Amino acid sequence: MNNLLLQQNLFQLIKSKLNKEANLAKVIAETLNVSIDAAYKKIKGERLIDMSELQVLLAEFKIPIADIDTANTYNRVWFNFKPINGIDFTFKDYLKQMVNNLNWLINSNVNYIIYSAKEVPMFYNFMFPELGCFKSFVWQKSILNLPNLNAHQFDIYDLDNEIIELGSTIYQLYNKIRSKEIWNFETVNCTLKQIEYYKLSGLFANEDSLKMVTNQYKQLINHIELQTRRSKKINLISKQEEALFDLYHNELILGDNTVLIQFENSQMAFITPNAVNSFTSNHLEVTNYINSNLKTVLDASIRMNRQNDKVITPFFEKIKLNLTI
Fold first, then answer.
1. How far is CA 106 from its chain centroid?
2. What is the mean pLDDT of residues 182-208?
3. Fewer CB near the terminus (10 Å): N or C of the chain?
4. 207 CB-side CA count, 13 A
5. Which of 117, 124, 110, 121 is nearest to 261 (CA)?
6. Backbone region of residue 54 per phi and psi (left: phi > 0; alpha: psi in -120 to 50; beta: other values)
7. Is 195 exposed, middle or buried (0-12, 13-18, 19+ CB in 10 A)?
8. What distances in angstroms separate CA 145 from CA 86, 94, 133, one per listed residue?
9. Cα–Cα distance between 81 and 240 in angstroms, integer?
């Protein structure tokens, strides 16, 4: 493989390791102690890096030299992954990162999001302080197994105000972004099963907590029905219509919480195996594959917000039949 292609592969690898907000040319300039203009020329391939610069870049970004040779990395793609561990990256850090990511999407003029929903997209839970805190509690205690919640029950009279504030911001920002959401009847059942499990296991501190969470989840589903009828996201408090909203129903294919972000000339994928921690990638092999898969699912789904009342009403009535805990 020629040196120019190796160099291009190197910069692609470095870019995949950076935060989305980072400027690649600036990072390269600072690392190599060269001007921004010189860094741009190296990134564009107008000027080759020398051996000493190669060694500096490989060491700084912890890249094995074999990885820049695509002949040795066939079928290999790169993801960014920073899981919640409760120590140096807490659940609140995760929510703060989500606020930053959503702001970045909005400022980057994102076109839309495609969301293959295994459960109701997490953003909506934060419409309601108690429901948002309940889901946050479940994710931390039962999904991530964080030890600090081992002996705790969920109590609406003991909520975390910081989670409420971060959650509210997340919900409001998501409302500003057009989304195409693919739901199945099982999408709604995930949270219902969590409520039922917490009820049977005595993990609600009191009856008020169970009733509040259950009632707010019913309100959430009613709100999604309203959005579907209007084809717009609607702020729960102000009732103001915001970004476009498309709800797709697919009876055969269960969602897996995969998210594809569509920009004007690029895409980004979020793959979430356990409800919260996500692998992210802007690798073309990944985004093209996910885009193709999701397009196939969309084409085979019913676009509910384009249907009349004879289709929408039975769909949500069937969902609501299961909302009794």
1. 14
2. 96
3. N
4. 0
5. 110
6. alpha
7. buried
8. 10, 16, 16
9. 35
Which amino acid type is present at position 297? V
Query: Which residue is it, tokens 């609406």?
Result: 156
Number of residues assigned to the chain: 325
pLDDT in tens, 20-34: 788 999 999 999 999
Give the residue carrying structure tokens 């971060």: 166
Contact 183, 117 (CB under 8 A): yes
Residue linked to tokens 């055969």: 252
Pairing of strands 241-249, 179-183: parallel
Largest CA distance in the chain: 69
Pairwise CA distance, residues 195 & 71, whole Å: 50
Give the C-alpha distances (Å, rounded to integers) separating 306 from 154, 203, 227, 247, 302: 39, 41, 12, 9, 9
Report pLDDT digits (tens) over 127-141: 999 999 999 999 999
Task: Tell me what percent of the chain is helix, strand and coil, each rounded to the nearest 5.
Answer: 55, 15, 35
Torsions phi, psi for 183 (to 5 deg): -115, 155
User: 47: buried, middle or exposed (CB in 10 Å: 19+, 13-18, 0-12)?
Assistant: middle
The tens digit of pLDDT for each residue in 81-109 reads 889 988 889 999 999 999 999 999 999 99
d(CA 247, CA 105): 21
| Domains of the chain in sequence order | 3-76 (1.10.260), 81-320 (no CATH)
Burial of 201 (0-12, 13-18, 19+ CB in 10 A): exposed
